[in-house]
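Lecture 7, part B: from sequences to assemblies.

Below are the input chains for today's worked example.
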Amino acid sequence: MQMPSPDTAVLINKEHILARLRAVLPADCVIDDERETKAYECDALSAYRCPPLAVVLPRTTEEVAAVLKTCYDLSVPVVPRGSGTSLAGGALPTEDSVILGVSRLNAVLETDYDNRFIRVQTGRTNLSVSGAVEENGFFYAPDPSSQLACAIAGNIAMNSGGAHCLKYGVTSNNLMGVRMVSMEGEILDIGGAHLDAEGLDLLGVICGSEGQFGVVTEATLRILHKPEGARPVLIGFDSNEVAGACVSDIIKAGVLPVAIEFMDRPCIRATDDFSGAGYPDCEALLIIEVEGSDDEIKEQLDKITKIARTHNPVELREAGSAEEAARIWLGRKSAFGAMGQLNDYMCLDGTIPVTELPYVLRRIGEMSREFGLDVGNVFHAGDGNMHPLILYNANKPGDLETCEAFGAEILKLCVEVGGCLTGEHGVGIEKRDLMDFQFNAEDLEAQMRIKDVFDPKWLLNPAKVFPLKHTEDRRKNRVQFAAHAAE
Amino acid sequence: MQTFFKEEQLHVPDFKRSNEILRACVHCGFCTATCPTYQVLGDELDSPRGRIYLIKDMLEQGRTPDAATVKHIDRCLSCLACMTTCPSGVHYMHLVDHARAYIEENYKRPLSDRFLRFVLAAILPYPMRFRLAMFAAKLSRPILRRFPDARIRAMADMVPKTIPPVSRNDDAQSFASKGVRKKRVALMTGCAQKALNTDINDATIRLLTRLGCEVVVAEGQGCCGALTHHMGKTDQSHKFAQTNLSVWGKEIHSKGLDAIIINTSGCGTTIKDYGHMFRDTNLAEDAKTVSARAMDITEFLMTLDVPESQTKSIKVAYHAACSLQHGQQVKTHPKTLLKAFGFDVVEPQDAHLCCGSAGTYNLLQPEISTALKERKVKTLMATKPDVIAAGNIGCMMQIGSAAEVPVVHTVELLDWATGGPVPAAVSHCGWSKIQ
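Predicted structure of the full complex, as structure tokens:
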């Protein structure tokens, strides 16, 4: 992956930058020992790595503001980081950047059950938001598979989804307000504990902006009453294509389960051992969850099984207990990690119209043979949000490059069939150079002008999202700012 | 993850193993979520993923460990919550064990560190020395508490109010089963445990013999090696382990053993790992045999027919020791048994988090340890228990130093419920003897 050469003015100015950061932060919040910064050189996309100039771990919004102001004054690039679970390299540093981690901002600030919201600091993990309200029968709906570890900050940056988003929507549908710090160090409140933000929909601009516009330190999130009951059903098929067709038929029939998840044989095998879920022995598996009262569950399941039976499933089984349901979901949510037992992998994240599932799954299988690399598929089928996992051997020269080329072809296929490059992981570094395939130069220019407004010096999360050839002039400007600051 | 070991490094068994472990890691970050030190410190360097990265770099470069790397490895509790969480099957325990041994061999610690570690390794695994040291520490406590080094103060505070007299039950001997003998088992009597609390082994022996087991305290057995193993002092830990292998091996080959019973789960994790520790030696087979027979007392009890017990309306907050729930993946047995024996069992929030005891951790890292203790005691007390039960002496001491209710070993409650004496720690609670 091509990265711009680091800004030498920043590198030369390192000691001064560190001194300025230390002046505004407690001593244990600034890390610059090269052994230590190395551990921050990548996120969950470990194929791309680069140790940052320094890492800062502030504890308050005010400290975040002080860091950003300092970096703005000195024209130092900043890479915001939540829990570092991005699969798209959203938190990949550059050599001349400061990692701004929000992991220590993890408090619950306010819960209001009557008005159904919670206000948290964004370093808090997704699952622990639900954890904070579950005793009172509430939950926070978006549930990325990494929800145990991923931070709300990253969820907002990437507009994350998850298995249950088929019914409840993604982060943007559950985010009511943010406190954000601009690159200049200004603290802004956008939206709040009410349904729609006043004025222009700035919240919609911030959510999914991949750390390009500011650093969100607090979030007001919609919490919902837990359903009366929920039950997953497992439906096994003898081919990926048939499973894909079944999903398409369920959606077409107007049934809206809370989740329709897809796993193929490699993923089923890898996750079953870890979770003890007892998945059926089949080529492709759908996990479909419905919720509501017993009657509602029964009615929906009847409809779904009726449709499924027209596709000749090899097995059809409802979870018999809450424990079994938990194991079924543990397996699904651990799928990416569990695939690591087989080999290294790159996880893609494209979205397609649900009706295209059978075709795209077949093409991925064909391409897998062409490129000579195995693929595991585990994804949110109901939303058409694909996650092909391309398996490769990181220690084998040339394998990563083949994997990248294969991945690019899959994502192009997603665009070709009317979908887009990303569903919930964001563009990050991984899909940056494919943006040209989805957008023309004018579209990209329009998007970059929005960044100009929030981040005029182009310091936030550098070298991501926009293909480098389109950002050249703006990056040159930044270098001049930095040279000026160093003087 | 991609690794960068040199070909010749991969011929060294420990490096080969570490490479396998690192290759399994996909850097997903799930482990950070359940790591106690990451919860307290919020820096990825103090999480499994950060430590794995630090270890990876240190071992790949084959370099002299640096102070920063050592600091973050030292802060690891070895609670192994990360291994429970990891979907990729990364064997963090073997990796961090290798790193600790590598650090011990290649890093010169500051004098005070070396001295403290030497003293701990020379005292804790030897019950007689430990007793003497505790008496000495008790006498000099007022002076020790004024030491500027927090670790010395932690040691002074750790000494219990009463140091129990030696229990003759811990001497080498065999206890006949009551009634027909169903099983023959060896009891690992521990090292530090029998100096700190003699009730646990006494209760274990009573319970097992009552349930039809002959219980052997084998001649010559000693510390399992865990305390020194976790300090990276593998020469010492392997020597301890070797002694035990020969002692239990003799029993297995003469009269036979159905199980080696362990009631200190910290020891259990290590004894179950003897097979790995000696994998490339001529003791490999013996070690495998011993590891295969090692069982936590609750694991073993689940294989016996246990009598039904009446409900006691006593609320027990069960504290899951990390070495039991993560190290050995024994999660439900203690709770199942307590419930079957008539207790009302509750669990604290965040039951997966360590209490901060972790072998010598509470002595070497008192600040983090205290933060974890406070969290644990708070969540335990929130369940409003009559008594707290745990399966590891370290946790019992740690939680007992701050909890407002008595802390007992699970086995003491089980012994009492089947006709044993009221556990000493709750003697003031007015519980009666059960017939």
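Note for the exam: The domain at 343-435 of chain A is CATH 3.30.70.2740 (Alpha-Beta Plaits). Keep this in mind when comparing with the next example.
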